[in-house]
Amino acid sequence: MIMLYVVALGLLMFGLGWSTASTLGNDDSSVAYAPDRPEVAIVNRDGADGERLMEPMRAFLAEECDLVDVGTSSEDLQTAVASNYADLIVIMPDGFAQRFATALTDGTASPELEVVTSYTGALGTLAKLQVEDFLRLARIETLGATYGSTVDDSDVANGAQAVVDRLKDNPGAYPTAAVAPDPSAVSDREDNARIVFVTMVKMAAYPLLVAMLICTALAMNAFGGTDVRRRLYASPRRTGSMMLQQFAACSVFSMLVSVLYLALAVALPAVNGLPLSGIPSATLWLSLAAMLVYGIVGVACGFMLSMLSLGSAAVNGFGNVFGLATMFTSGMACPLEMMPQFMIDIGKLMPGWWFCEAVQAVSGSKGVMDVALWWRDMGLVALFGVAFVCLGLVFSRYRRVHPKLSGAAVTQLAEG
User: Which spans are transmembrane here (predicted)?
Assistant: First the structure.
């Protein structure tokens, strides 16, 4: 059960920080620029004549758009529109190629395709402009090739194919955006790695406190049962020294857990491709020291609860409530600017607030590290641990004065 708390809360900490890490890990716009490509679906309802015009159109649009298939039935198209499956749906109605050729012969306006654009962005509108450009170029090519004669649908198909062939041989037909390299791109990603690491260390305020509080309380409660205490009090060893050994063992375990959680905080930016060189060595070691002290404070709180002889349900309840209160008032769950003043005041009465303040003081933000502030904040965190230990000793003293060691009543057999 103890390892379940450690592993489960560690995974919770890792999961909470994954969203931030993945967002910052994919934030590489300062290194390269890749414009979004609209998704376009082309539906032909004009048979073979329309297909001869559609093939060059697909080749033209494929240079800067992603072509998708949404089906051809009315139900398929309605589903695609409702689900916003494509940025642009182009429908060539029956007889379009012939009407297009007739308009060229008569010199009238060209017919229009049926289009449906996405309601979530401008990519569909931009793709529609490309469709209109293609039809305009196809019109010009067809008129140039059939000047003074009647135009039929095969001439339109040939003109459309000529547009694709002409643009294919022109290297400047589809220009690409040239972006100069950002000299601060590497430092930006290093700063993102530092932000992810510091965020993860702050998020340890909840799992580290809860895990060590509950694990210590449950472990030391095992020595607080009536039968166990009777044997301990009857042994020649001093109760105080045995209690100190239990506390020391739990403290060593908390240090191991702190190192484990710090390893998770280091692994998260690395897994998301961020350079670990962005984490200053002073930030790393002072964060580890802060987690070690904070973990021992959790042990001290668990020691205090064990001296009250609370059951496992009560220990679990107190640990989770205390941990959640610490999480929501320490500034790790939401920015301080969004927290009401009374929550900030409550947070300052808990060790989690000062732990997060200490980590922030040595986070290296803007190249500033306030080690003196770190010592002040960690001193306050340590005082919480001292207070918990003192309260635990008071409860232990009271329990030794009132041991309640009476065993079960002995059954007396009646004499006949």
Answer: 204-226, 247-271, 283-306, 313-333, 373-395
pLDDT tens for 149-181 read 787 878 888 888 888 888 877 766 666 666 655
Alpha helices in 28-152, H assignment, sequence order: 47-61, 74-82, 96-106, 123-145
Farthest CA pair distance, the chain: 137
Q: How far apart are CA 39 and CA 61, in angstroms?
A: 10
- Which pLDDT score, from 0 to 100, does residue 411 have? 45
Q: What pairing do the DSSP bridges indicate for beta strands 66-67 and 88-92? A: unpaired
Task: Specify whether domain 39-168 bears CATH 3.30.70.
Answer: no
Mapped onto helix, strand or coil, the DSSP state of residue 118 is coil
Provide the residue type at 278 as one letter. Answer: G
Q: Return all residues near 255 (Cβ < 8 A) that are at least 6 apart.
A: 292, 295, 296
Reported confidence tier of residue 407, pLDDT bands at 50, 70, 90:
very low
The ranges assigned to domains in the chain are 2-27+184-401, 39-168
Q: How far apart are the first and last CA of the chain?
A: 53
Using alpha carbons, select from 59, 134, 49, 65 the residue that is nearest to residue 99: 49
Q: In this predicted structure, what is the pLDDT of residue 65?
A: 86
Q: What is the pLDDT, as a whole number, of residue 383?
A: 94
* Mean pLDDT, residues 62-70 taken together: 85
Please report, for residues 95, 227, 404, 407, the alpha-carbon distance to residue 410 in angstroms, rounded to integers and kept in the order given.
104, 16, 16, 9
Q: How far apart are CA 388 and CA 392, in angstroms?
A: 6
Distance between CA 250 and CA 9 in Å, rounded?
Answer: 17
